[in-house]
Amino acid sequence: MKKITTRNQNYSQWYLDIIEVAELAENSVTKGSMVIKPYGYSIWESFQKVLDKMIKDTGHKNAYFPLFIPKSLLTKESKHVQGFAKECAVVTHHRLKDSPDGIIVDPESKLSEELIVRPTSETIMYDTFSKWIHSWRDLPLLINQWANVVRWEMRTRPFLRTTEFLWQEGHTAHISEEEAEAEARKMLGVYMDFVENYLAIPVIPGLKTESEKFAGALRTYSIESMMQDGKALQTGTSHNLGQNFAKAFEVKFADKDGKEKYVWQTSWGVSTRMVGALIMSHSDDDGLIVPPRIAALKIVIVPIYKTEAEKTEVLAAAKVIQEKLKILDENILLDDRDYETPGSKFNEWEKKGVPLRIEFGPKDLEKNSATLVRRDTKEKISVALDELLEKVRILLEQMQKDIFEKAKKFREENSYQIDDWSEFKKHFQEKEISGFVYSHWCGNDACEREINEELQATIRCIPLEQKEENGKCIKCSKESKKRVIFAKAY
Ligand SMILES: [Zn+2]
User: What's the CA-to-centroid distance between 479 and ligand 1, angstroms?
Assistant: First the structure.
């Protein structure tokens, strides 16, 4: 059986080990692309189910746009193309053929115009929007797409950075700047709600700096989370695109005053990266930990028996328990595999992070009780069968809260305010877990760049919720009104 590297020994290896033992994903023959295994995919589906509802509840509709984007379209917005030029997969031919050396690309099938595999869909969508939108009556246009995208990566890590990944991308068009800004902020709020209340990961909403914003956007907002090694991970982004794309793609509408105007746009997205955030926020040295509200499998019942007579009795009673708990969740597993011992089953479900395990054997049957085992704390609780449903319901809610609070406490314990450059430098050079450092910054990208080059710390965001105060830039000592978060990041 594979032994998990501990977080203290080697955090990066621990992350890869968790992915392996929990059977979330594996490397594929396609370099830089992963295979998401059934258990890992069930977690992504669980994310999708909740988030898709939230996106629809806020008025958006799902649609699907082509994977291939004509090069001329992708290059229409100049900042956008610069932002993605270095990581594009390009389709140049459309046919293979036999040759004496085996199958080759048919040189005669060269495309007259190359196609780009979408790195994101602003361009192809907005070209379409320009045909859909005619008057103010067509606005707002609120579209979401669940899709795969490709960004060519040289150094990859499962879920965090792969050449192909899965995501949702929302794209909207509005009548005014205020409406677009409100939409960008609203969707940041939806992501915040989802990540904090379902994934139990505390986040800080903020504004990205000019150098870190999305290519082609007016403003980019993000939510930032701290992983257990103190590094930051951006779990979602929302962009106010202004009229940059509207002008490049001629997305215009006739306003109520009869005048033709450009629309105001937003885009926003979260990806399978969130699975990486989930792993790194909560899991321990024994395996994955999934918060109950988002777990695809919340409860597993493991029957314990030795003789055939015990087996018959225990399984019959376990099935009754399973039926009873279905009020809480449809998907409750009774692990009645005969070829595995209870011990190896405990081990497997612990590695996979199933929130609650119910152990049930002849002794429990005799006492009319069952043993509940929490995955997060490993606490064992004996519960009378007639109280089981209520106890399980309460316990799942408690676990959800406890997992969030634990992550929040970790973040607070590893957050600092630093106002002195030498202290700041020493912090990032020497501290094992450097965490989030709140410091003043003048707004100049030279200071930002120099800090990044010297200390590998970047400005994660300018937190939205903060009081203005008089301070001095940590690097150049110029006047500053706001603190930003510096951190090492994924
Ligand atoms: Zn400065």
Answer: 8
Contacts of 119 by beta carbon, 8 Å cutoff, 6+ apart: 84, 87, 88, 149, 150, 151
pLDDT, the chain, mean: 96
Residue finishing a domain among 391, 411, 431: 411
Return the CATH number at 425: 3.30.110.30
Q: How far is the CA of 43 from the centre of ligand 1 (A)?
A: 43
In a domain, 195, yes or no: yes
For the stretch 188-216, pLDDT in tens is 999 999 999 999 999 999 999 999 999 99
**In terms of residue numbers, what domain contains 477?**
415-487
Distance (angstroms) between ligand 1 centre and the Cα of 202 equals: 29
Domain boundary among 411, 431, 452: 411
Residue of 25, 53, 50 lying closest to 39 (CA atoms)? 25
366 and 331 fall within a common domain? yes
Is the model's pLDDT at 77 over the cut of 90? no
Q: pTM (2 decimals)? A: 0.96
Taking the centre of ligand 1 as the mean of its atom positions, its distance from the CA of residue 377, in whole angstroms, is: 45
